[in-house]
Amino acid sequence: MKTIGYLGLGVMGYGMTSNLIDKSGQTVYGFDPVPELRERFAQRGGKALESGKELYETCDVIFMCLPTNAIVKATITEIMETAKPGTTIVDMGSTSPYVIQELHAVALEKGYHLLDSPVSGGETGANGGTLVIMCGGEREVFDDVKPYLEMMGKTVTYMGPSGCGSTAKVANNMMVGIHLLAMGEAFAFATKAGLDPHTLFDAIKGGFAQSAVMDLKVPKLLSRDFSASARIAVHLKDINNAMDVAEHLGVELPMTKIVKEQMDWMDAHGMINEDQCALAKYYEDSMGVEIK
Q1: Pairing state of beta strands 119-120 and 131-136?
Q2: For burial by CB atoms within 10 Å, which of 111, 169, 202, 209 has the most?
Q3: 47 included as an active-site residue
Q4: Smallest Cα–Cα separation from 180: which of 279, 106, 80, 261?
Q5: Out of 154, 169, 192, 220, which one is annotated catalytic?
Q6: DSSP states of 229-244 as a string?
Q7: Would the pTM of this model clear 0.90, i.e. be above it?
Q8: Is residue 131 within 8 Å of residue 144, measured between CB atoms?
Q9: Contact by Cβ (8 Å): 156, 150
């Protein structure tokens, strides 16, 4: 039996580790630099460790969900300086495909395994074990950790070599970003035109415009609940990754460019750490309405 650990016990990590604790039948080790998150993890039934180094030395498989490309790169580099060779590292965050491929080459050289296994589904999916998980790396490494991934996700798909999981996540969040903007624009427009947005939601949620984005985000928007189950800041990282990949490929992403512009507007107005549904504020501001 492999010893498993999880690095990063925030909104997503807490839900994913809860499912590992409940379904694996074994000790799940965890670390986060925030003491309150370690305590919450311990109360949930995990074995909280006092340092990342202790986790790296203890675990055969290290899952991680961290916020930025720079932190992911520094952390995986540190793991490979500390953990025993043969350790498998599974990055479940939204990391640039190019960063992952660079780290993957180093991991192979040093005798480690690295999978990019980003997820979609937000806090609801993490808590419910219903995430969509997209994986890149060696097929045999994927097959080895797939049982654990299936404890956290409703679908676990092998996408191809290193970086393919991260690229799939970029494509996924390009579409989610466009859906969010379409939702905000339409509901601000309807409110400006005199419709009740609650009634509009009830009227169209079973029709062709229905989506998981609308189902989850419109109720938060209507209740003016901008507490983050998925932060705009994290989504903007994916959008920036998309623009970077597009530049390398020599292609244009006109709709994703609009998403980036409006997320940058949120950043400039101090709202980048709010929930994705807050993107509707861009349209509220431009149309002089409030969706509620």
Answers
A1: antiparallel
A2: 169
A3: no
A4: 279
A5: 169
A6: SSBHHHHHHHHHHHHH
A7: yes
A8: no
A9: yes
